[in-house]
């Protein structure tokens, strides 16, 4: 294929060497690149914290009602936002549907961060916080959790400065499973009235505590708290990419202005409207996760594999220096798990997603066999490092 410029007939042609090397903004050059480890995911999916079963049966029924003509129509987000808002006990203008939580994070950063502003969050956490904040030229202030991996509340408070513009709190946190309490969230919001507080509740269903109810408009409603939720985990719609932002109307007006009007497709909107009210399904699925998580934690304790307490649909364990060998050994047994060693403070750590009962049984058996296959011993485990060795993987 020619590298010369395409020109109109008769116009002078430019040699390829005359092209200038066009560079993006400095913030984009400095921004870390992520590489989703999606290739070759053939096996039992205990690696991405996805729903390993299926969404509500109502989703299939709703998708069956979509006509071919429906694919020719631009999607209308507003009516489904009203349905979701009613489910959450909020006004429609307090809810914005997004293309998963990934876009929610991007819209918040795009809307509120200027170059030089400080974005504060605890680590280890979701890598897309780094990507989106750095992309806006913000200064990242990462507060490292200690060996317990509990939320570093006091150090987060101490890190707030007049330049802090965005504070991201994740509860339960991925990949640790730790929580931030409602009291801590409100105290941080009060300590930084000049900053937006984004509470990422992607794993809310598996723990149950939330500040969503505090957003109901009234005299005591916080004016700087936003809540992000996803339909990718408990609802099982990861492939359709749907999330939401909720908060005070004053902030949502800005976010809506920054959002694309057609960011959520019509198939996804139909699925959300169908599943949001199926509390019977969600209650059943969450119960499966609670029981499965307890089984995995008990099995790890019996195998003397160090782990951290989890409030999500996964368990983080400490394998030690041979973590990559362990992950590969699990893959040979058709079980996919996630190596989290690249995350700050998690050297040697591996994350295991909770599945349905039969999947949990398969996972536990594979754990036993894989550890035996590499002749793993508890004495191998050393204290995790506090700095990442490489760019963290996404999700």
From TrEMBL:
The protein's Enzyme Commission number: 2.6.1.9
GO terms under biological process: L-histidine biosynthetic process
Keyword line: Amino-acid biosynthesis, Aminotransferase, Histidine biosynthesis, Pyridoxal phosphate, Transferase
Transmembrane segments: none
Catalytic activity: L-histidinol phosphate + 2-oxoglutarate = 3-(imidazol-4-yl)-2-oxopropyl phosphate + L-glutamate
Domain of life: Bacteria
Domain Aminotransferase class I/classII large: 43-359
GO molecular function, one term: histidinol-phosphate transaminase activity
Pathway: Amino-acid biosynthesis; L-histidine biosynthesis; L-histidine from 5-phospho-alpha-D-ribose 1-diphosphate: step 7/9
Family: Belongs to the class-II pyridoxal-phosphate-dependent aminotransferase family. Histidinol-phosphate aminotransferase subfamily.
Protein name as it appears in the record: histidinol-phosphate transaminase
Lineage: Bacteria, Pseudomonadati, Acidobacteriota, Terriglobia, Terriglobales
């Amino acid at each position: 294929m020619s590298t010369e410029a395409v020109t109109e007939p008769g116009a002078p042609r430019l040699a390829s060497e005359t092209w200038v090397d066009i560079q993006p903004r400095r913030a984009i050059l400095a921004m870390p690149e992520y590489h989703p480890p999606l290739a070759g995911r053939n096996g039992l999916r205990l690696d991405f914290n996805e729903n390993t079963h299926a969404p509500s049966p109502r989703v299939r029924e709703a998708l069956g009602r979509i006509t071919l003509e429906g694919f020719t129509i631009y999607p209308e987000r507003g009516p489904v936002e009203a349905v979701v808002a009613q489910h959450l006990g909020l006004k429609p203008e307090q809810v914005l549907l997004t293309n998963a939580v990934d876009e929610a994070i991007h819209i918040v950063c795009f809307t509120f961060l200027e170059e030089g502003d400080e974005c504060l969050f605890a680590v280890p956490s979701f890598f897309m916080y780094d990507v989106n904040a750095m992309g806006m030229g913000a200064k990242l202030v990462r507060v490292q959790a200690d060996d317990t991996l509990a939320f570093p509340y006091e150090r987060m408070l101490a890190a707030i400065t007049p330049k802090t513009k965005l504070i991201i709190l994740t509860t339960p946190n991925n990949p640790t499973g730790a929580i931030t309490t409602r009291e801590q969230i409100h105290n941080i919001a009060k300590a930084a009235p000049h900053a937006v507080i984004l509470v990422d509740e992607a794993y809310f269903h598996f723990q149950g505590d939330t500040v969503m109810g505090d957003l109901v408009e009234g005299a005591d409603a916080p004016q700087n708290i936003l809540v992000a939720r996803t339909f990718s985990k408990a609802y099982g719609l990861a492939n359709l990419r749907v999330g939401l932002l909720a908060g005070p109307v004053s902030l949502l007006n800005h976010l809506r202005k920054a959002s694309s009007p057609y960011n959520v497709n019509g198939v996804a909107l139909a699925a959300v409207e169908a599943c949001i009210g199926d509390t019977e399904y969600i209650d059943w699925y969450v119960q499966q996760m609670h029981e499965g998580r307890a089984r995995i934690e008990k099995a790890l304790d019996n195998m003397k594999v160090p782990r951290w307490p989890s409030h999500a649909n996964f368990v983080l364990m400490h394998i030690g220096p041979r973590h990559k060998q362990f992950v590969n050994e699990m893959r040979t047994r058709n079980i996919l798990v996630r190596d989290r060693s690249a995350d700050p403070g998690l050297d040697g750590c591996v994350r295991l997603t909770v599945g349905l009962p039969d999947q949990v049984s398969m996972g536990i058996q594979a754990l036993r066999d894989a550890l035996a296959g590499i002749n793993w011993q508890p004495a191998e485990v050393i204290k995790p490092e506090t700095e990442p060795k490489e760019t963290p993987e996404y999700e």
